[in-house]
Amino acid sequence: TIKKIKIQRTFFIFLVSISLIFLLIFSSVIASGNDKKEISILLGGGLQGWDTVIKEFEKETGIKVKVVVGPPTTDSREMMYSISFLTKEQSYDLVYLDVVWLGKFASANWLENIKNFIDPTEYFTKNNIFKNYVDSLTYKGQYYAIPVKADAGLLYYRKDLLNKYKLTPPKTYYELKEQAKYILKMEKELYNNSDLIGFVFQGKQYEGLVCNFYEILRGFGYELIDLDSNNRYYVKVKEEQLEEVLNFMKSLIEEGVTPKSVITYEEEESRIAFSQGKVIFARNWPYAIKLLQENNEMKDKYGVSVLPGNPPAPTVGGWALAVSSYSKNKQEAFKFIDFVVNKGLKELFLKRGDIPTKADLFNDIEIINNFPYSDVVLESLKYSKSRTIHPLYPKISNVIQVYVSGVLSFKYNPKYASKEIIKNIQKILDTTNY
Length: 434
Hints:
Elements: H1 2-34, E1 38-44, H2 50-61, E2 64-70, H3 74-86, E3 94-98, H4 102-107, H5 120-126, H6 131-135, E4 138-139, E5 142-143, E6 146-152, E7 154-158, H7 159-164, H8 173-191, E8 197-200, H9 207-219, E9 225-227, E10 233-235, H10 239-254, H11 267-275, E11 279-284, H12 287-293, E12 302-305, E13 316-323, H13 330-352, H14 365-369, H15 374-383, H16 393-408, H17 414-430
Parallel strand pairs: 1-2, 8-11
Antiparallel strand pairs: 3-13, 4-5, 6-13, 7-11, 7-12, 9-10
Helix pairs in contact: 2-13, 9-16, 10-17, 16-17
């Protein structure tokens, strides 16, 4: 009997043990199933628009998105990404990058090749994404990011003044200068209006000046840097061509079209001067349209056109999404990018004013109704060209900033600055294997 009880007890313990093991396994499976994947992204400034897109993505996919709110300045966020990548930390699964970072990030193998997720050509065609924005995110013929926010330089003008003197928006930069001089002269002679300014742009020594320089250079029909038959970069512009462009920029100040203070102007200084009715022509980005529409004094007095040039060549600005090479959740990260492209761009425009990179969205009634001059912006986006895509682009940019700013401040003459720009940029290109 005792033996029988022992056998029964042993069998009972065995059953309990099996049950516990099964329960633990089952619990583990359940826990694993509920253990949602989490991806992270670094964003700067306000999250309006992004918060809605992220919430909808989480609801649809079950994938959590951790947002790291970084500093508002672009350079600071680039540094945060760079430090994270250099230490090979998995700090961010997604990279929200300025288009000018592409060369540096891709050459360092910090970004996952898009072909690891989809066929890039097929994807970009299917989603009707602007080709020039796609091209601005290639490195050595490979795609590393998907554009989600577009930007291109525009020419803002006083519609009332151009109509008054029976003028149409200028097609060349020389025509812009002559129109500005004519209106300034007439306004002073007829109405004693000597407070008017002809043309403002971003002339401070920073990246904005580089964007403006590229636009004028290309508007004259020249190109700064190109690839040779061996796929190596070289300085394409000739010294006399560059000197012509710099002489023109300097002449704007010398001939009283542009104020000397332009060397302190960033985007906001340009926008504020124009919005106060003090300026005939202003170069700026599309963001100023919304703010001008809210300005009762100016909303019926201004117009927007494609920048001058033959052909026009607005500088590509904007942002893109990429997957970090160090991410452990690459597929989930790309799912988020695809979600933004297909379901988030409209929300980001309506809440943030971010210009969509999909051409078909410019036919969306809600976007058209909330976006004056959308047809002009669309045309500008189609003409737009990227700055040089190169791993050492920051050094190239610095050379341009130093010498173009030097010309505008009368520190350097255009001939000397042209020689130095070509010499220093070629030196940068020659000392690399890119």
